[in-house]
């Protein structure tokens, strides 16, 4: 009798592994469809295929509140997709009540998880596996980013969402102690940089998201290996100098501190903004980034110092 549940669990985990392979294929097909398609209908179909596959991935994680997270994600994404479809139908019948470009851009910003339309995202990340969280934070943004880079949107419109994402993502992440929520708000901050980079060239946002994805991957491998949920738990590894060193280096990388990899695409974006005589925007971005980075490092140093002297 005891072997039957074990047999069922083995089958379940085997099916999960198969689904991960299928999901990777679907993800690749979705990106190819979005890049190669000239039809808004095909793009919408690609987005919906992705929605169904990621909901299954969230639900299959078998962690806390999987059903709640799946429903939240489905409702938000389904509303955005419905508005997207309505816009396509209005375009087909040549009925333009409002400027559809800005409507599509707003929908894509929801899908990129940028502020101020981000409120649903941190709660969904909490309780997911590190692999699932990594997919939601990085790879899932590629499709909407590609579409956003094709749109001719006023730069001030993009700057508004970019500044909000950088400031809100940085400040709200300061109050968090759970690592998944910290990564979620960090992702919102990086979304601000990514959406503003889409207005310059494909190469600009491609460099940024590649740098961000590789940096995130190194951090996720570490977190997945030691399997902790709170930053305070990580400081228990202070006796393991190597793990602590790698963690601190990853924090510096994710914050874009020079000379680490994410600093260079940020520097390119600031250069491109100043070349268009936009000096206030990069100044606000730099001040916000410096303040939040200083607070992050100070909190990390203070907690580590307190833990060492308590032991």
Protein topology:
Layout (H helix, E strand, L loop, with lengths): L2 H34 L3 H20 L6 H27 L7 H13 L8 H5 L4 H8 L4 H9 L4 H19 L5 H19 L4 H25 L4 H4 L6 H15 L7 H13 L4 H31 L1
Helix pairs in contact: 1-2, 1-7, 2-3, 3-4, 4-7, 8-9, 8-14, 9-10, 10-12, 10-13
Structure write-up:
The structure is a single chain. This protein is mostly helical and 311 residues long. It has one domain. It has helices at residues 3-36, 40-59, 66-92, 100-112, 121-125, 130-137, 142-150, 155-173, 179-197, 202-226, 231-234, 241-255, 263-275, 280-310. α4 runs antiparallel to α7 (142-150), α8 (155-173) runs antiparallel to α9 (179-197) and α8 runs parallel beside α14 (280-310). The longest helix has 34 residues, at 3-36. The radius of gyration is 21 Å and the shape is globular. The model has no long low-confidence stretch (mean pLDDT 79).
Task: Summarize, please.
The protein is an all-alpha fold and 311 residues long. It is built from 14 helices and no strands.
Quaternary status of these chains?
A: single chain
* CA gyration radius, whole angstroms: 21 Å
The helix-strand sequence is HHHHHHHHHHHHHH
Based on secondary structure, the structural category is: mainly alpha
| Average of per-residue pLDDT values | 79
Shape: globular
What is the straight-line distance between the termini?
47 Å
Question: Notable features of this structure?
Answer:
mainly alpha; single chain; 311 residues
């Amino acid at each position: 009798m005891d072997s039957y549940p074990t047999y069922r669990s083995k089958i379940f985990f085997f099916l999960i592994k198969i689904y991960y392979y299928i999901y990777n294929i679907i993800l690749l097909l979705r990106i190819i469809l979005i890049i190669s398609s000239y039809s808004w209908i095909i793009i919408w179909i690609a987005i919906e295929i992705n929605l169904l596959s990621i909901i299954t991935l969230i639900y299959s994680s078998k962690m806390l509140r999987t059903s709640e997270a799946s429903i939240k994600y489905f409702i938000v994404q389904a509303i955005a997709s419905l508005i997207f479809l309505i816009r396509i139908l209005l375009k087909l019948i040549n009925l333009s009540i409002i400027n559809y470009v800005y409507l599509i851009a707003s929908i894509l910003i929801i899908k990129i998880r940028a502020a101020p339309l981000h409120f649903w995202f941190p709660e969904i990340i909490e309780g997911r596996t590190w692999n699932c969280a990594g997919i939601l934070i990085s790879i899932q943004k590629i499709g909407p980013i590609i579409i956003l880079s094709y749109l001719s949107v006023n730069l001030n419109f993009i700057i508004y969402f970019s500044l909000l994402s950088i400031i809100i993502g940085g400040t709200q992440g300061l109050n968090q102690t759970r690592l998944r929520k910290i990564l979620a708000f960090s992702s919102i901050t990086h979304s601000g940089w990514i959406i503003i980079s889409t207005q310059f060239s494909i190469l600009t946002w491609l460099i940024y998201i590649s740098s961000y994805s590789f940096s995130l991957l190194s951090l996720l491998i570490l977190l997945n290996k030691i399997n902790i949920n709170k930053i305070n738990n990580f400081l228990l590894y202070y006796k393991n100098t190597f793990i602590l060193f790698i963690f601190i280096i990853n924090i510096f990388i994710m914050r874009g501190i020079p000379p680490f990899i994410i600093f260079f695409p940020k520097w390119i974006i600031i250069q491109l903004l100043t070349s268009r005589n936009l000096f206030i925007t990069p100044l606000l971005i730099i001040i916000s980034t410096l303040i939040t980075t200083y607070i992050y490092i100070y909190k990390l140093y203070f907690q580590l110092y307190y833990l060492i002297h308590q032991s």
